[in-house]
Amino acid sequence: MNVAVAAKPLEQLAEQYGPMRTVLNSAGSADVPREQADAFGFNLLGGKDLRTSVINGNDGRAVLSIRCVRYIDPVTQKERFAVDYRSVRRYWASDHQTAAVAELSYESAVRGEFARPTLLLSPERRTRGLAGFYDETDVAR
């Protein structure tokens, strides 16, 4: 990744390279036709994980997973970078052709979940910071 590009805030990167494109959204509309959702979902699941944050339930299975993934767009067959958010309550995914935009979007999603949790979690998770909130994360503070 280009360090100079990554040093910019997400808003500036989106202004320079364009916004993320929503490819999956269980709670609303997406920027791609709904009939392509299965193809995008399949390719995202088979993509290469670049970064991951996970919250596990009592049984050890993930109840929330946020991934930054490199995958192949099923329509254009071009490599793209996505934030793939899946929880027991909802899922969404957005992508971009620029890795830096996707990586900053991933960090924003991870921090956003910590700031406004969508799952009912024990109070201890919130008091230990990001590393204690997630069972696995690579986002620092």
Kindly describe this structure.
The chain has 141 residues and is of the alpha+beta class. Helix content is 34%, strand content 28%. It has six helices and five strands. A hairpin with a 6-residue loop joins strand 3 and strand 4 (79-87). Helix 2 (10-17) runs antiparallel to helix 4. The protein is globular and about 45 Å long. Mean pLDDT is 90; it is low at 1-5.
Percent of residues in β-strands: 25-35%
Structural class: alpha+beta
Q: Characterize the overall form.
A: globular
H-E order: HHEHEEEEHHH
Helix content: 25-40%
The low-confidence runs, each spanning 5 or more residues with pLDDT under 50, are: 1-5
Per DSSP, the total helix count is 6
Kindly state the number of beta strands. Answer: 5
Task: Give the distance, in angstroms, between the N- and C-terminal Cα atoms.
Answer: 21 Å
Query: What is the topology, as strand order, of the major beta sheet?
Result: 1-5-4-3-2
The main β sheet shows up as:
5 strands, antiparallel
Q: What is the mean predicted local confidence, pLDDT?
A: 90
Rg from alpha-carbon coordinates: 15 Å
Short note summarizing the structure:
The chain has 141 residues and is of the alpha+beta class. Helices cover 34% and strands 28% of the residues.
